[in-house]
Amino acid sequence: KQHVAVIGLGRFGSAVAAELGAAGHDVLGIDSDLGVVQRLAPSVTHVVQTDATDEQSLGRLGVADCDSAVVAITGHIETSILVTLLLKRLGVERVIAKARNDLHGEILTRVGADRVIYPERDTGLRLAHSWSSSDITDSLDVVEGYAVSRVQVPQEIVGQELGDVIGNRPDGVTLLLLARGSRVILYPDRGERLQRRDVLVLAGELEEMERFFSSLH
Amino acid sequence: KQHVAVIGLGRFGSAVAAELGAAGHDVLGIDSDLGVVQRLAPSVTHVVQTDATDEQSLGRLGVADCDSAVVAITGHIETSILVTLLLKRLGVERVIAKARNDLHGEILTRVGADRVIYPERDTGLRLAHSWSSSDITDSLDVVEGYAVSRVQVPQEIVGQELGDVIGNRPDGVTLLLLARGSRVILYPDRGERLQRRDVLVLAGELEEMERFFSSLH
Lengths: 217, 217
Ligand SMILES: Nc1ncnc2c1ncn2[C@@H]1O[C@H](COP(=O)(O)OP(=O)(O)OP(=O)(O)O)[C@@H](O)[C@H]1O
Ligand SMILES: Nc1ncnc2c1ncn2[C@@H]1O[C@H](COP(=O)(O)OP(=O)(O)OP(=O)(O)O)[C@@H](O)[C@H]1O
Fold this sequence. Notes:
- The structure is a homodimer.
- Chain A is α/β, with parallel strands linked by helices.
- Chain A is about 35% helix and about 30% strand.
- Chain A folds into two domains: about 5-115, Rossmann fold (3-Layer(aba) Sandwich); about 125-215, Alpha-Beta Plaits (2-Layer Sandwich), CATH 3.30.70.
- Chain A has helices at about 10-20, 35-40, 55-60, 75-90, 100-110, 120-130, 160-165, 205-215; strands at about 5, 25-30, 45-50, 70, 95-100, 115, 135-145, 145-150, 175-180, 185, 200-205.
- In chain A, strands 3-2-1-4-5-6 form a six-stranded parallel β-sheet, with helices on both faces. Chain A has a five-stranded antiparallel β-sheet with strand order 7-8-11-9-10.
- At the A-B interface, helix 1, helix 6, strand 7, strand 8 and strand 9 of A face helix 1, helix 6, strand 7, strand 8 and strand 9 of B.
- Bound molecules: adenosine-5'-triphosphate (2 copies).
- One adenosine-5'-triphosphate binds near residues 72 and 74 of chain B.
- One adenosine-5'-triphosphate binds near residues 8, 12, 30 and 53 of chain A.
Protein backbone atom coordinates (compact mmCIF):
# COMPACT_ATOMS: atom_id res chain seq x y z
CA LYS A 1 0.00 0.00 0.00
CA GLN A 2 1.18 3.54 -0.66
CA HIS A 3 1.50 6.75 1.32
CA VAL A 4 -0.36 9.41 -0.73
CA ALA A 5 -0.90 13.16 -0.22
CA VAL A 6 -4.01 14.71 -1.82
CA ILE A 7 -3.84 18.51 -1.90
CA GLY A 8 -7.10 20.35 -2.57
CA LEU A 9 -10.24 18.49 -1.48
CA GLY A 10 -12.84 19.79 -3.97
CA ARG A 11 -15.09 17.42 -5.96
CA PHE A 12 -12.17 15.72 -7.71
CA GLY A 13 -9.69 15.71 -4.80
CA SER A 14 -12.17 14.46 -2.21
CA ALA A 15 -13.26 11.59 -4.49
CA VAL A 16 -9.61 10.53 -4.99
CA ALA A 17 -8.78 10.82 -1.25
CA ALA A 18 -11.84 8.91 -0.01
CA GLU A 19 -11.54 6.12 -2.60
CA LEU A 20 -7.77 5.59 -2.10
CA GLY A 21 -8.41 5.47 1.65
CA ALA A 22 -11.15 2.87 1.12
CA ALA A 23 -8.69 0.76 -0.95
CA GLY A 24 -6.32 0.67 2.03
CA HIS A 25 -3.75 3.33 1.10
CA ASP A 26 -2.48 5.75 3.78
CA VAL A 27 -3.93 9.09 2.65
CA LEU A 28 -3.01 12.59 3.89
CA GLY A 29 -5.63 15.12 2.73
CA ILE A 30 -4.68 18.82 2.77
CA ASP A 31 -6.97 21.81 2.25
CA SER A 32 -6.76 25.48 3.27
CA ASP A 33 -10.49 25.67 4.05
CA LEU A 34 -11.39 24.59 7.60
CA GLY A 35 -14.99 23.81 6.60
CA VAL A 36 -13.81 21.40 3.91
CA VAL A 37 -11.39 19.68 6.34
CA GLN A 38 -14.10 19.21 9.00
CA ARG A 39 -16.62 17.83 6.46
CA LEU A 40 -14.18 15.26 5.10
CA ALA A 41 -12.61 14.16 8.41
CA PRO A 42 -14.86 11.05 8.61
CA SER A 43 -13.99 9.76 5.13
CA VAL A 44 -10.24 10.44 4.76
CA THR A 45 -7.52 8.77 6.93
CA HIS A 46 -5.75 12.02 7.90
CA VAL A 47 -7.05 15.48 6.96
CA VAL A 48 -5.17 18.67 7.78
CA GLN A 49 -5.91 22.36 7.28
CA THR A 50 -2.96 24.28 5.93
CA ASP A 51 -1.85 26.47 3.02
CA ALA A 52 -0.10 23.99 0.73
CA THR A 53 2.09 26.71 -0.82
CA ASP A 54 3.92 26.97 2.57
CA GLU A 55 7.00 24.75 2.13
CA GLN A 56 7.77 24.61 5.91
CA SER A 57 4.25 23.38 6.58
CA LEU A 58 4.49 20.61 3.93
CA GLY A 59 7.85 19.59 5.47
CA ARG A 60 6.37 19.40 9.01
CA LEU A 61 3.49 17.24 7.70
CA GLY A 62 5.93 14.68 6.32
CA VAL A 63 4.80 15.13 2.71
CA ALA A 64 8.37 14.34 1.60
CA ASP A 65 7.80 10.74 2.77
CA CYS A 66 4.81 10.26 0.48
CA ASP A 67 5.23 7.89 -2.47
CA SER A 68 2.94 10.05 -4.57
CA ALA A 69 0.71 13.10 -4.48
CA VAL A 70 -2.33 14.53 -6.25
CA VAL A 71 -2.71 18.30 -6.76
CA ALA A 72 -6.43 18.99 -7.23
CA ILE A 73 -6.67 22.81 -7.34
CA THR A 74 -7.71 24.68 -10.50
CA GLY A 75 -9.41 27.80 -9.10
CA HIS A 76 -5.99 29.46 -8.63
CA ILE A 77 -3.63 28.25 -11.35
CA GLU A 78 -0.64 29.90 -9.58
CA THR A 79 -1.31 27.83 -6.42
CA SER A 80 -1.53 24.57 -8.39
CA ILE A 81 1.78 25.31 -10.15
CA LEU A 82 3.58 26.33 -6.93
CA VAL A 83 2.40 23.26 -5.02
CA THR A 84 3.42 20.92 -7.88
CA LEU A 85 6.90 22.46 -7.94
CA LEU A 86 7.27 22.21 -4.15
CA LEU A 87 6.26 18.53 -4.15
CA LYS A 88 8.87 17.64 -6.76
CA ARG A 89 11.50 19.64 -4.79
CA LEU A 90 10.56 17.67 -1.66
CA GLY A 91 11.31 14.49 -3.64
CA VAL A 92 7.80 13.07 -4.12
CA GLU A 93 8.26 10.49 -6.91
CA ARG A 94 4.86 10.63 -8.64
CA VAL A 95 2.88 13.89 -8.80
CA ILE A 96 -0.49 13.85 -10.64
CA ALA A 97 -2.13 17.24 -11.17
CA LYS A 98 -5.56 18.35 -12.39
CA ALA A 99 -5.48 21.11 -15.05
CA ARG A 100 -8.09 23.71 -15.92
CA ASN A 101 -7.07 23.88 -19.60
CA ASP A 102 -4.23 23.03 -22.02
CA LEU A 103 -2.06 26.02 -21.07
CA HIS A 104 -2.28 25.18 -17.36
CA GLY A 105 -1.50 21.56 -18.22
CA GLU A 106 1.58 22.50 -20.22
CA ILE A 107 2.98 24.58 -17.32
CA LEU A 108 2.31 21.75 -14.84
CA THR A 109 4.29 19.35 -17.04
CA ARG A 110 7.18 21.81 -17.28
CA VAL A 111 7.43 22.20 -13.48
CA GLY A 112 7.57 18.43 -13.04
CA ALA A 113 4.04 16.95 -12.91
CA ASP A 114 4.27 13.26 -13.93
CA ARG A 115 0.71 13.16 -15.21
CA VAL A 116 -1.88 15.84 -15.98
CA ILE A 117 -5.63 15.17 -15.85
CA TYR A 118 -8.49 17.11 -17.54
CA PRO A 119 -11.69 15.81 -15.87
CA GLU A 120 -14.25 17.86 -17.82
CA ARG A 121 -12.74 17.21 -21.25
CA ASP A 122 -12.10 13.49 -20.60
CA THR A 123 -15.66 12.96 -19.35
CA GLY A 124 -17.03 14.83 -22.39
CA LEU A 125 -15.06 12.58 -24.77
CA ARG A 126 -16.14 9.46 -22.92
CA LEU A 127 -19.81 10.49 -23.17
CA ALA A 128 -19.46 11.08 -26.92
CA HIS A 129 -17.73 7.70 -27.40
CA SER A 130 -20.54 5.82 -25.68
CA TRP A 131 -23.27 7.75 -27.53
CA SER A 132 -24.22 5.02 -29.99
CA SER A 133 -26.59 3.59 -27.45
CA SER A 134 -28.15 4.65 -24.16
CA ASP A 135 -27.48 1.07 -23.03
CA ILE A 136 -23.74 1.85 -22.88
CA THR A 137 -22.95 2.98 -19.34
CA ASP A 138 -19.21 3.46 -19.82
CA SER A 139 -16.46 2.82 -22.33
CA LEU A 140 -12.69 2.50 -22.62
CA ASP A 141 -10.93 3.59 -25.83
CA VAL A 142 -8.36 1.00 -26.95
CA VAL A 143 -7.19 2.58 -30.21
CA GLU A 144 -8.78 5.26 -32.39
CA GLY A 145 -12.27 3.99 -33.35
CA TYR A 146 -12.13 0.75 -31.26
CA ALA A 147 -13.53 0.52 -27.75
CA VAL A 148 -14.42 -1.81 -24.90
CA SER A 149 -17.91 -0.90 -23.64
CA ARG A 150 -19.92 -1.75 -20.55
CA VAL A 151 -23.58 -2.30 -21.41
CA GLN A 152 -26.74 -2.69 -19.36
CA VAL A 153 -28.74 -5.54 -20.99
CA PRO A 154 -31.70 -3.87 -22.75
CA GLN A 155 -35.21 -5.16 -22.07
CA GLU A 156 -35.62 -6.41 -25.66
CA ILE A 157 -33.05 -9.21 -25.29
CA VAL A 158 -33.76 -10.39 -21.75
CA GLY A 159 -34.44 -14.19 -21.83
CA GLN A 160 -32.66 -14.73 -25.15
CA GLU A 161 -29.59 -16.98 -25.56
CA LEU A 162 -26.25 -15.21 -25.90
CA GLY A 163 -25.43 -17.07 -29.14
CA ASP A 164 -28.59 -15.66 -30.77
CA VAL A 165 -27.89 -12.07 -29.69
CA ILE A 166 -24.17 -11.77 -30.35
CA GLY A 167 -23.35 -13.78 -33.42
CA ASN A 168 -19.83 -14.82 -34.23
CA ARG A 169 -19.35 -12.40 -37.11
CA PRO A 170 -15.55 -11.98 -37.46
CA ASP A 171 -15.79 -8.23 -38.02
CA GLY A 172 -18.49 -7.67 -35.47
CA VAL A 173 -18.78 -7.11 -31.77
CA THR A 174 -17.13 -9.60 -29.36
CA LEU A 175 -18.51 -10.43 -25.93
CA LEU A 176 -15.63 -10.43 -23.41
CA LEU A 177 -17.52 -11.05 -20.16
CA LEU A 178 -20.91 -11.14 -18.44
CA ALA A 179 -21.48 -9.77 -14.94
CA ARG A 180 -24.44 -10.99 -12.93
CA GLY A 181 -24.84 -9.51 -9.43
CA SER A 182 -21.31 -9.59 -8.00
CA ARG A 183 -20.28 -12.63 -10.12
CA VAL A 184 -18.16 -12.17 -13.28
CA ILE A 185 -18.25 -14.86 -16.00
CA LEU A 186 -15.37 -14.62 -18.49
CA TYR A 187 -16.14 -15.97 -22.00
CA PRO A 188 -19.71 -17.03 -21.11
CA ASP A 189 -21.29 -20.02 -22.86
CA ARG A 190 -23.34 -19.30 -26.03
CA GLY A 191 -26.32 -21.06 -24.51
CA GLU A 192 -26.41 -18.75 -21.46
CA ARG A 193 -29.82 -16.96 -21.19
CA LEU A 194 -29.69 -13.19 -20.49
CA GLN A 195 -31.29 -11.89 -17.28
CA ARG A 196 -32.72 -8.45 -16.46
CA ARG A 197 -29.84 -6.88 -14.53
CA ASP A 198 -26.99 -8.49 -16.49
CA VAL A 199 -24.07 -6.30 -17.53
CA LEU A 200 -22.10 -7.14 -20.69
CA VAL A 201 -18.58 -6.02 -21.57
CA LEU A 202 -18.16 -5.87 -25.36
CA ALA A 203 -15.25 -5.03 -27.67
CA GLY A 204 -15.41 -3.75 -31.24
CA GLU A 205 -15.12 -0.95 -33.77
CA LEU A 206 -17.35 2.04 -32.89
CA GLU A 207 -19.36 1.68 -36.16
CA GLU A 208 -19.89 -2.04 -35.47
CA MET A 209 -21.09 -1.21 -31.96
CA GLU A 210 -23.56 1.29 -33.41
CA ARG A 211 -24.86 -1.25 -35.91
CA PHE A 212 -25.15 -3.90 -33.20
CA PHE A 213 -27.16 -1.66 -30.86
CA SER A 214 -29.57 -0.39 -33.48
CA SER A 215 -30.23 -4.03 -34.42
CA LEU A 216 -31.30 -4.76 -30.82
CA HIS A 217 -34.14 -2.23 -30.66
CA LYS B 1 -26.97 9.30 -37.02
CA GLN B 2 -28.66 11.56 -34.48
CA HIS B 3 -29.62 15.21 -34.27
CA VAL B 4 -28.14 16.48 -30.97
CA ALA B 5 -28.25 19.86 -29.20
CA VAL B 6 -25.38 20.70 -26.83
CA ILE B 7 -26.18 23.66 -24.59
CA GLY B 8 -23.25 25.29 -22.80
CA LEU B 9 -19.91 24.97 -24.60
CA GLY B 10 -17.44 25.01 -21.68
CA ARG B 11 -14.70 22.36 -21.31
CA PHE B 12 -17.19 19.49 -21.02
CA GLY B 13 -19.80 20.74 -23.51
CA SER B 14 -17.29 21.66 -26.21
CA ALA B 15 -15.60 18.22 -25.94
CA VAL B 16 -18.98 16.47 -26.35
CA ALA B 17 -20.06 18.71 -29.27
CA ALA B 18 -16.79 18.41 -31.21
CA GLU B 19 -16.48 14.64 -30.73
CA LEU B 20 -20.11 13.88 -31.65
CA GLY B 21 -19.68 16.03 -34.75
CA ALA B 22 -16.50 14.10 -35.66
CA ALA B 23 -18.47 10.83 -35.32
CA GLY B 24 -20.95 12.06 -37.93
CA HIS B 25 -23.87 13.22 -35.77
CA ASP B 26 -25.67 16.49 -36.63
CA VAL B 27 -24.76 18.76 -33.72
CA LEU B 28 -26.31 22.11 -32.78
CA GLY B 29 -24.11 23.93 -30.24
CA ILE B 30 -25.66 26.73 -28.19
CA ASP B 31 -23.88 29.22 -25.92
CA SER B 32 -24.77 32.71 -24.65
CA ASP B 33 -21.16 33.95 -24.98
CA LEU B 34 -20.30 35.26 -28.46
CA GLY B 35 -16.56 34.67 -27.91
CA VAL B 36 -17.16 30.99 -27.17
CA VAL B 37 -19.38 30.61 -30.25
CA GLN B 38 -16.79 32.19 -32.54
CA ARG B 39 -13.92 30.09 -31.13
CA LEU B 40 -15.84 26.83 -31.63
CA ALA B 41 -17.39 27.59 -35.04
CA PRO B 42 -14.65 25.60 -36.89
CA SER B 43 -15.09 22.41 -34.84
CA VAL B 44 -18.89 22.12 -34.33
CA THR B 45 -21.38 21.55 -37.20
CA HIS B 46 -23.74 24.42 -36.22
CA VAL B 47 -23.00 26.87 -33.40
CA VAL B 48 -25.42 29.58 -32.34
CA GLN B 49 -25.28 32.38 -29.76
CA THR B 50 -28.43 32.65 -27.70
CA ASP B 51 -29.75 32.54 -24.14
CA ALA B 52 -30.93 28.93 -23.78
CA THR B 53 -33.46 29.86 -21.07
CA ASP B 54 -35.47 31.72 -23.78
CA GLU B 55 -38.10 29.17 -24.86
CA GLN B 56 -39.05 31.09 -28.07
CA SER B 57 -35.42 31.08 -29.14
CA LEU B 58 -35.04 27.31 -28.58
CA GLY B 59 -38.26 26.82 -30.58
CA ARG B 60 -36.99 28.94 -33.51
CA LEU B 61 -33.70 26.95 -33.55
CA GLY B 62 -35.60 23.69 -34.03
CA VAL B 63 -34.36 22.17 -30.76
CA ALA B 64 -37.68 20.30 -30.49
CA ASP B 65 -36.58 18.19 -33.50
CA CYS B 66 -33.43 16.99 -31.74
CA ASP B 67 -33.29 13.32 -30.71
CA SER B 68 -31.28 14.23 -27.62
CA ALA B 69 -29.61 17.10 -25.84
CA VAL B 70 -26.77 17.73 -23.41
CA VAL B 71 -27.00 20.51 -20.82
CA ALA B 72 -23.43 21.44 -19.82
CA ILE B 73 -23.82 24.47 -17.53
CA THR B 74 -22.94 24.34 -13.83
CA GLY B 75 -21.88 27.92 -13.08
CA HIS B 76 -25.56 28.96 -12.69
CA ILE B 77 -27.53 26.03 -11.30
CA GLU B 78 -30.84 27.85 -11.95
CA THR B 79 -29.99 28.11 -15.69
CA SER B 80 -29.12 24.41 -15.92
CA ILE B 81 -32.41 23.45 -14.26
CA LEU B 82 -34.53 25.81 -16.39
CA VAL B 83 -32.95 24.64 -19.65
CA THR B 84 -33.41 20.96 -18.71
CA LEU B 85 -37.09 21.55 -17.97
CA LEU B 86 -37.62 23.49 -21.24
CA LEU B 87 -36.01 20.70 -23.29
CA LYS B 88 -38.29 18.05 -21.79
CA ARG B 89 -41.30 20.33 -22.40
CA LEU B 90 -40.23 20.73 -26.05
CA GLY B 91 -40.31 16.92 -26.30
CA VAL B 92 -36.60 16.09 -26.53
CA GLU B 93 -36.49 12.35 -25.76
CA ARG B 94 -33.05 12.02 -24.07
CA VAL B 95 -31.65 14.87 -21.97
CA ILE B 96 -28.24 14.37 -20.31
CA ALA B 97 -27.16 17.04 -17.83
CA LYS B 98 -23.91 17.80 -16.01
CA ALA B 99 -24.30 18.47 -12.27
CA ARG B 100 -22.13 20.51 -9.91
CA ASN B 101 -22.98 18.36 -6.87
CA ASP B 102 -25.49 15.80 -5.53
CA LEU B 103 -28.18 18.37 -4.72
CA HIS B 104 -28.02 19.87 -8.21
CA GLY B 105 -28.13 16.35 -9.64
CA GLU B 106 -31.22 15.43 -7.64
CA ILE B 107 -33.10 18.53 -8.88
CA LEU B 108 -32.09 17.80 -12.50
CA THR B 109 -33.51 14.28 -12.18
CA ARG B 110 -36.77 15.63 -10.73
CA VAL B 111 -37.25 18.09 -13.62
CA GLY B 112 -36.79 15.30 -16.16
CA ALA B 113 -33.08 14.77 -16.92
CA ASP B 114 -32.64 11.20 -18.21
CA ARG B 115 -29.05 10.97 -17.04
CA VAL B 116 -26.91 13.12 -14.73
CA ILE B 117 -23.11 13.29 -15.01
CA TYR B 118 -20.53 14.35 -12.37
CA PRO B 119 -17.26 14.80 -14.33
CA GLU B 120 -14.96 15.74 -11.41
CA ARG B 121 -16.17 13.00 -9.07
CA ASP B 122 -16.20 10.30 -11.77
CA THR B 123 -12.68 11.20 -12.89
CA GLY B 124 -11.47 11.16 -9.27
CA LEU B 125 -12.90 7.66 -8.72
CA ARG B 126 -11.41 6.42 -11.98
CA LEU B 127 -7.96 7.71 -10.98
CA ALA B 128 -8.20 5.96 -7.60
CA HIS B 129 -9.31 2.69 -9.27
CA SER B 130 -6.30 2.65 -11.57
CA TRP B 131 -3.87 3.60 -8.81
CA SER B 132 -2.35 0.13 -8.34
CA SER B 133 0.11 0.86 -11.10
CA SER B 134 1.29 3.86 -13.10
CA ASP B 135 1.16 1.54 -16.12
CA ILE B 136 -2.67 1.62 -16.00
CA THR B 137 -3.80 4.43 -18.29
CA ASP B 138 -7.54 3.90 -17.82
CA SER B 139 -10.01 1.49 -16.31
CA LEU B 140 -13.66 0.44 -16.43
CA ASP B 141 -15.38 -0.82 -13.28
CA VAL B 142 -17.41 -3.96 -14.00
CA VAL B 143 -18.66 -4.78 -10.48
CA GLU B 144 -17.41 -3.61 -7.06
CA GLY B 145 -13.71 -4.60 -6.84
CA TYR B 146 -13.43 -6.01 -10.40
CA ALA B 147 -12.19 -3.94 -13.34
CA VAL B 148 -11.08 -4.02 -16.96
CA SER B 149 -7.87 -1.98 -17.28
CA ARG B 150 -5.92 -0.56 -20.20
CA VAL B 151 -2.18 -0.88 -19.59
CA GLN B 152 0.89 0.53 -21.32
CA VAL B 153 3.43 -2.35 -21.51
CA PRO B 154 6.16 -1.53 -18.94
CA GLN B 155 9.79 -1.58 -20.06
CA GLU B 156 10.60 -4.59 -17.82
CA ILE B 157 8.52 -7.05 -19.87
CA VAL B 158 9.25 -5.85 -23.40
CA GLY B 159 10.56 -8.82 -25.48
CA GLN B 160 9.06 -11.46 -23.17
CA GLU B 161 6.45 -14.02 -24.30
CA LEU B 162 2.86 -13.35 -23.17
CA GLY B 163 2.56 -16.83 -21.66
CA ASP B 164 5.51 -16.13 -19.34
CA VAL B 165 4.18 -12.73 -18.19
CA ILE B 166 0.49 -13.49 -17.71
CA GLY B 167 0.19 -17.03 -16.40
CA ASN B 168 -3.10 -18.84 -16.56
CA ARG B 169 -3.84 -18.71 -12.84
CA PRO B 170 -7.61 -19.23 -12.52
CA ASP B 171 -7.96 -16.49 -9.89
CA GLY B 172 -5.53 -14.11 -11.46
CA VAL B 173 -5.53 -11.49 -14.15
CA THR B 174 -6.87 -12.37 -17.64
CA LEU B 175 -5.56 -10.82 -20.85
CA LEU B 176 -8.52 -9.87 -23.08
CA LEU B 177 -6.74 -8.20 -25.98
CA LEU B 178 -3.47 -6.72 -27.23
CA ALA B 179 -3.33 -3.49 -29.27
CA ARG B 180 -0.30 -2.83 -31.47
CA GLY B 181 -0.32 0.42 -33.45
CA SER B 182 -3.87 0.60 -34.85
CA ARG B 183 -4.28 -3.22 -34.91
CA VAL B 184 -6.27 -5.03 -32.20
CA ILE B 185 -5.58 -8.73 -31.51
CA LEU B 186 -8.34 -10.47 -29.51
CA TYR B 187 -7.15 -13.42 -27.36
CA PRO B 188 -3.50 -13.16 -28.50
CA ASP B 189 -1.34 -16.30 -28.71
CA ARG B 190 0.71 -17.19 -25.59
CA GLY B 191 3.86 -17.22 -27.69
CA GLU B 192 3.42 -13.60 -28.83
CA ARG B 193 6.46 -11.43 -27.85
CA LEU B 194 5.65 -8.04 -26.26
CA GLN B 195 6.81 -4.89 -28.05
CA ARG B 196 7.61 -1.42 -26.66
CA ARG B 197 4.38 0.47 -27.51
CA ASP B 198 1.97 -2.44 -26.99
CA VAL B 199 -1.22 -1.78 -25.04
CA LEU B 200 -2.85 -4.61 -23.04
CA VAL B 201 -6.46 -4.79 -21.88
CA LEU B 202 -6.69 -6.93 -18.72
CA ALA B 203 -9.59 -8.05 -16.51
CA GLY B 204 -9.44 -9.06 -12.85
CA GLU B 205 -10.06 -8.33 -9.17
CA LEU B 206 -8.42 -5.05 -8.06
CA GLU B 207 -6.20 -6.88 -5.49
CA GLU B 208 -5.11 -9.37 -8.17
CA MET B 209 -4.23 -6.48 -10.48
CA GLU B 210 -2.15 -4.89 -7.71
CA ARG B 211 -0.32 -8.17 -7.09
CA PHE B 212 0.27 -8.68 -10.82
CA PHE B 213 1.74 -5.18 -11.30
CA SER B 214 4.05 -5.29 -8.32
CA SER B 215 5.37 -8.64 -9.61
CA LEU B 216 6.35 -6.94 -12.90
CA HIS B 217 8.70 -4.35 -11.40
N1 LIG C 1 -3.16 27.08 -1.07
C1 LIG C 1 -4.01 26.06 -0.85
N2 LIG C 1 -3.67 25.09 0.00
C2 LIG C 1 -4.50 24.05 0.25
N3 LIG C 1 -5.72 23.93 -0.32
C3 LIG C 1 -6.13 24.86 -1.19
C4 LIG C 1 -5.31 25.99 -1.51
N4 LIG C 1 -5.99 26.75 -2.41
C5 LIG C 1 -7.18 26.16 -2.63
N5 LIG C 1 -7.28 25.02 -1.91
C6 LIG C 1 -8.41 24.09 -1.84
O1 LIG C 1 -8.45 23.28 -2.98
C7 LIG C 1 -9.79 22.82 -3.21
C8 LIG C 1 -10.09 22.82 -4.69
O2 LIG C 1 -9.85 24.07 -5.19
P1 LIG C 1 -10.63 24.68 -6.43
O3 LIG C 1 -12.07 24.81 -6.08
O4 LIG C 1 -9.87 25.86 -6.86
O5 LIG C 1 -10.46 23.55 -7.52
P2 LIG C 1 -11.49 22.90 -8.50
O6 LIG C 1 -10.62 22.26 -9.51
O7 LIG C 1 -12.51 23.86 -8.93
O8 LIG C 1 -12.21 21.77 -7.64
P3 LIG C 1 -13.20 20.62 -8.14
O9 LIG C 1 -12.44 19.34 -7.95
O10 LIG C 1 -14.37 20.73 -7.19
O11 LIG C 1 -13.56 20.91 -9.57
C9 LIG C 1 -10.71 23.74 -2.40
O12 LIG C 1 -11.35 22.97 -1.42
C10 LIG C 1 -9.76 24.79 -1.80
O13 LIG C 1 -10.12 25.11 -0.47
N1 LIG D 1 -28.33 30.89 -20.36
C1 LIG D 1 -27.34 30.35 -21.09
N2 LIG D 1 -27.56 30.00 -22.36
C2 LIG D 1 -26.57 29.45 -23.11
N3 LIG D 1 -25.32 29.23 -22.68
C3 LIG D 1 -25.04 29.55 -21.40
C4 LIG D 1 -26.01 30.11 -20.53
N4 LIG D 1 -25.43 30.34 -19.32
C5 LIG D 1 -24.15 29.94 -19.42
N5 LIG D 1 -23.90 29.46 -20.66
C6 LIG D 1 -22.62 28.95 -21.19
O1 LIG D 1 -22.39 27.65 -20.73
C7 LIG D 1 -20.99 27.38 -20.73
C8 LIG D 1 -20.60 26.57 -19.52
O2 LIG D 1 -21.03 27.23 -18.39
P1 LIG D 1 -20.30 27.15 -16.98
O3 LIG D 1 -18.93 27.69 -17.12
O4 LIG D 1 -21.22 27.69 -15.99
O5 LIG D 1 -20.21 25.58 -16.77
P2 LIG D 1 -19.04 24.68 -16.29
O6 LIG D 1 -19.72 23.44 -15.87
O7 LIG D 1 -18.16 25.38 -15.30
O8 LIG D 1 -18.19 24.39 -17.59
P3 LIG D 1 -16.98 23.34 -17.78
O9 LIG D 1 -17.51 22.30 -18.71
O10 LIG D 1 -15.89 24.17 -18.43
O11 LIG D 1 -16.59 22.81 -16.43
C9 LIG D 1 -20.28 28.73 -20.81
O12 LIG D 1 -19.57 28.78 -22.01
C10 LIG D 1 -21.43 29.76 -20.75
O13 LIG D 1 -21.21 30.83 -21.62
